[in-house]
Write a structure and sequence with these properties.
Number of helices: 7
Strand content: 15-25%
Strand order of the largest sheet: 4-5-6-7-8-10-9-15-14
Shape: globular
Largest sheet: 9 strands, mixed
Radius of gyration: 19 Å
Helix content: 25-40%
Distance between the termini: 40 Å
CATH architecture of the domain at 171-267 and 326-349: 4-Layer Sandwich
Order of helices and strands: HEHEHEHHEEEHEHEEEEEEEE
CATH topology of the domain at 171-267 and 326-349: Purple Acid Phosphatase, chain A, domain 2
């Protein structure tokens, strides 16, 4: 079935869901009332990066604390990692989160003639092994420099699979047939889904069908986080055209009440939203910091930390260099990025 057939076959079904989601979000100020993070100075709900004890919900159960890191690579073929990578990982180890996600570009590949074995060995020494030694599950998604889906990079993609197959995190998988490319697992009341999105443009029909199936089969999980490499819509000025750019994917995520879509590639931090869907863009920890759309200053190296439970995301902050213990204030970020039908609002608007 072609993409046109896929879209037409689901258009009526998704339209009803989308209208319902829009109505509910408008009734709640275009943002779920359960969310408590404002991310500004003096916010009592902001997550303290030095506090390793998550706040408890009304039932007395603590939410999950999840850390997300992204784009840690350097120049092509590099086996050395920036001080920002080592500093962030050391700090994350001390936080002892329940889970660490990577949204791709862990090594500096996507070029022939490179020593991929050495690059992956260096990455594991700098990132994977310290997290494993700290007892922190580490779930990755492929980036274009790790496992590009374009045909000339098939060998790199195979290497990515062979590197991560024996490094499966200790989580409850609900679909691991295509691990470590696309897969899904649960932790607590949250469903996590990794996308295989390393190429520009809409996801293939097969992956869209798979994603719909995973979300449908796990509809009982009240919170859902989808993570991948390329963003749905642009965050950064540089490489603004390197996105998925497919409204059908946005409709699908909203139809299944996905809590957040978390992505890398654009090397610029932005805590965004469109209707009830959180869209979080990650800054890089490696080289190549970029500017958010409409700004002149490159985004600081940072990681994202959020608390999530069955009620949704309770706090979400980015913590920036040099010490990775001070949040990036939302008031320092634009109130929106993008133009036309691709506007992403800051999540406290």
């Amino acid at each position: 079935m072609g993409r046109a057939g896929w879209r037409e076959g689901r258009k009526r079904r998704f339209a009803g869901f989308a209208l319902l989601a829009f109505a509910l979000s408008c009734d709640a100020g275009s943002f779920p009332a359960r969310t408590t993070d404002a991310g500004t100075k003096g916010n009592p709900d902001a997550l303290d990066a030095s506090n390793t004890t998550p706040t408890k919900d009304a039932s007395g159960s603590p939410p999950l604390r999840v850390v997300v890191i992204s784009d840690m690579n350097g120049s092509y073929g590099s086996t050395a990692y920036e001080a920002t990578v080592h500093g962030a990982i050391a700090h994350i180890q001390s936080l002892k989160p329940d889970l660490v996600l990577s949204t791709g570009d862990m090594v500096a590949g996507q070029k022939s003639g490179l020593n991929y074995a050495s690059m992956w060995s260096a990455f594991h020494a700098a990132v994977s092994d310290p997290l494993t030694q700290a007892g922190i599950p580490f779930a990755v998604t492929p980036g274009n420099h790790d496992a590009s889906g374009y045909a000339p990079f098939a060998a790199e993609r195979n290497t990515f699979v062979s590197e991560w197959t024996p490094r499966k995190p200790n989580v409850t998988f609900v679909d691991d047939a295509n691990y470590p490319l696309r897969y899904a697992f649960t932790m607590g009341e949250v469903l996590f889904v990794s996308l295989d999105d390393t190429t520009v443009g809409p996801l293939a029909t097969e992956q869209m069908t798979w994603l719909e199936g995973v979300l449908t089969a796990n509809e009982g999980y009240p919170a859902k986080v989808v993570f991948g490499h390329l963003p749905l819509y642009p965050f950064a000025t540089e490489n603004a055209d390197e996105v998925i750019g497919d409204t059908a994917l946005e409709t699908l995520l909203n139809a299944h009440h996905v809590t957040a879509l978390v992505t890398g590639h654009h090397h610029a931090y932005y805590p965004g939203k469109r209707s009830a869907l959180r869209m979080v863009g990650l800054a890089c920890l490696g080289t190549g910091a970029r500017r958010l759309l409409g700004t002149d200053t490159p985004s600081k190296h940072s990681y994202v930390s959020f608390e999530i439970d069955g009620t949704g995301i309770r706090t979400l902050e980015a913590y920036a260099e040099p010490n990775f213990d001070v949040p990036v204030l939302r008031e320092t970020l634009p109130t929106s990025v993008g133009t036309g039908g691709r506007v992403i609002l800051r999540d406290d608007m």
